[in-house]
Amino acid sequence: GEITQFNVWDFALEDYTIENAAECRSDILGNVMRWEMDRWVTNDIKVKTAPLFELCGSAEDENKKWYLFPRPFDFWFYKSWCQNQGGKLAVPTTTENYHELMDIAEGLVLRETHDKCMHASGSLIMWAGPVDQWEEDEWMNPYTKEPVSASFWESGQPNGGPKENCVRTYQARKWQETDCDEANCAFCNFPKRMNLSMRGLCQAETKLMEGYFDMFYFLSGFRANRPHWRGLGKSHFYFRPNRQTWRLESFYDRDRYAEFFADDSNPYTYYPTGRTEWSIAEGICQKKGLVPHKMSLTNCIYNDGSGYDFTCTDGTCVGMEKRCNLVDDCPDGSDEKLCDILEVAFDYRKELFPITLTGDPLMVTINVSIIAFPEISTLDMSFLSDFVLLMRWIDPRLKFFNLVEAYELNSLSLSLQKKVWTPSLSFPNARQAEGTVVDAGSTTIVKRLGYPLNDDISRSVEAMIYEGNDSPMFMKREYLVNFNCDFNLRMYPFDTQVCVMEFQVNGIPLRYMTIGIETSKYCEEGKECSGGEYLGNRNLVEYLVGDAVMEDLSNYSEIFGRARVKIMFKRRWVYHLITVFFQSILLLGVAYMTFYFKMSNFQDRVMIAITTMMVVATIQSSINKMVPKTSYIKMIDIWLIYSFNIIIVMMTIHTYMDT
What we know:
Layout: H1 15-22, E1 66-73, H2 75-84, E2 88-89, H3 95-107, E3 127-131, E4 166-169, E5 175-178, E6 184-189, E7 196-199, H4 203-206, E8 216-223, E9 226-231, E10 235-240, E11 245-250, E12 257-261, E13 274-284, E14 287-298, E15 310-311, E16 317-318, E17 362-377, E18 382-393, E19 399-401, E20 411-412, H5 414-417, E21 425-426, E22 443-446, E23 465-467, E24 473-484, E25 496-509, E26 513-517, E27 532-534, E28 543-552, E29 560-571, H6 574-593, H7 602-626, H8 635-658
Helix pairs in contact: 6-7, 6-8, 7-8
């Protein structure tokens, strides 16, 4: 046995509900027993899904899958347009098959509707299907490029040359070679009658048993000599010749409608298919007064409901993975337009920090890549750092669109960066009050980690939508900041300094936001890495630069999240060894040599000792200009004090010896 649409109610149904069910206009679901697949318990059965309208008619009538379009347009338009609706132009495979197709087409002719498709003799004129676009006189299927063996030419045909690459039917069904840009009627086959869906209608308008509009439509004859698209029972599309518009109208309330102006100068803007702009009279998304509204009449939703493709403006379907991939896949390039990955909701408040879904503190991880140290000043006890700060966080309030796996392409424009909340960090040990900023130098990207949400058909443009909770944001910016450093100069010039770059959360307590360490993506597997790295030249003029190590100080802070990067500077002491220590030893040697002068030459001995003492004093003065004044004595101070005073001792000895 077969069963379908089994429902049970415990109340009397209205007459119009019974009428809708009898004419297969819409599903009516019971309140006691509802015909829904997730409620079934199945056991060794076969399930077939069929459009609702087939329950009230002959689903086996193959002729209903054919359609003769009465409006003459060029071949290439009808080739793509029929395909965009889920069908194809009729292309005969053999001469016998050609006559079978002509029998079906001639059976669909309506004299008033198809008057532009008829010859004075009564013969049907339409596109026959084959083309020799790729090789002259080699007639092929325009979709598969396979040779066509059918042939029913007029006498003397084909004779068109390289500019006539298409075929039309003419008197007595004979073929004529013609220019593909010529306008003729078209005969198309649609394997699935229910082949179009309307995107852009709000959920309230399409809700089962309550809404005024259908989501799915099929070709259902003609109205005003134009194609007529009908939904399951709530609404339909038809042409209004007096206004030259297509109207989407509800059967339940004729005041609820939208209109699309038919521009016959371009075939793609004549029919309402593809993504177009409609004027809402009333009843759609709470709009009225002929307000513009984008909607898409598309075949890009899979018939089995398993997924969807992207609808180009002209109705062509391309895979969602080709959306915004920097390559024009749509004929009109519309897949590379409107590629912003974020739409900020009207009620979003950027001054409020995000709250995690679990209620835990928001984790902001940072990574610091130091490019260079343009200046390290021992005298000012500071160092100038050129570094790139990377911050990572999530914002559950946001939703992202069409994220790609190559996350470098998922970037936010500057205007969007300024519309969303971003972490604000200060640099506590900077010489001036500085912190993070969002400006033209900032780059923010989004990484796709989660799975897309279910398709939202209320959006006129298809999008793979990802939750902000599963899509971390990365902001990167280069900074040039002067940091203070507490130099320990006791061993100068044989000293090694450890300086820090500090980062602290601005204004958000630890219970709401903490700082973590973001490991570099270049960290080798198995190697212990921190969130700090030095990328520049390690052999500077005055220092050797060691490794940069990041430490999370949140556990040592009572109020705000805090982290720091520690850098080691080891002074290069060879210069000081030669210019200070070695020279001083030579000077002391000269002063010592005065002991070997003649005892009677007292004046020369004293003058040489005084001269060496003055040179040592000059060296000491130059050193004092290179290092800051300290309350403690440095190693070089000890050496210079010794050098200076030992000469005084020598002079004292000379004076004593002379007296």
